Amino acid sequence: MWRSIIAFLLFSTPAVADAINGDWCLDSKRLSVKGPQIILPSGATIQGEYRRHEFLYQVPAGDADAGSMIYMQLQGEDNISLYHIKDGKPVDGQSWLRCLPNTTS
User: Please, are residues 46 and 57 in contact by the beta-carbon 8 Å criterion?
Assistant: First the structure.
């Protein structure tokens, strides 16, 4: 299933930045991507499907929306779009920004 979601999403606009790795902020929430590992705003560390400009993961048990799929795509050096996957399509888009050093927004 993940492969079909990734294949569907690969046709979207390509990113111009180097990689999705790094710390990302939205309001007081923060997440961190390092290769196939992600640290979620809840503090949970999990593995996902990593591509240089994209990341896909399943929300772990105990987190809000547990079991749902989340897709992130790098939009530029300092911006990612984060989507919930519903019925194989990205919905509820959010724009996260690269975190400033020592901050959460």
Answer: yes
DSSP 44: -
We report the CATH number of the domain holding residue 39 as 2.40.128
Q: What is the number of alpha carbons within 13 Å of residue 47 lying toward its C-beta?
A: 0
What would the pLDDT profile of 14-62 be if each residue is shown by its tens digit?
A: 444 589 999 999 999 999 999 999 999 999 999 999 999 999 999 999 9
Residue 23 belongs to a domain:
yes
- As for how many domains the chain has, the answer is 1
Residue 103 counted as domain residue? no
How is residue 80 written in tokens? 């990612």
Contacts of 53 (CB under 8 A, 6+ apart): 14, 15, 17, 19, 20, 73, 74
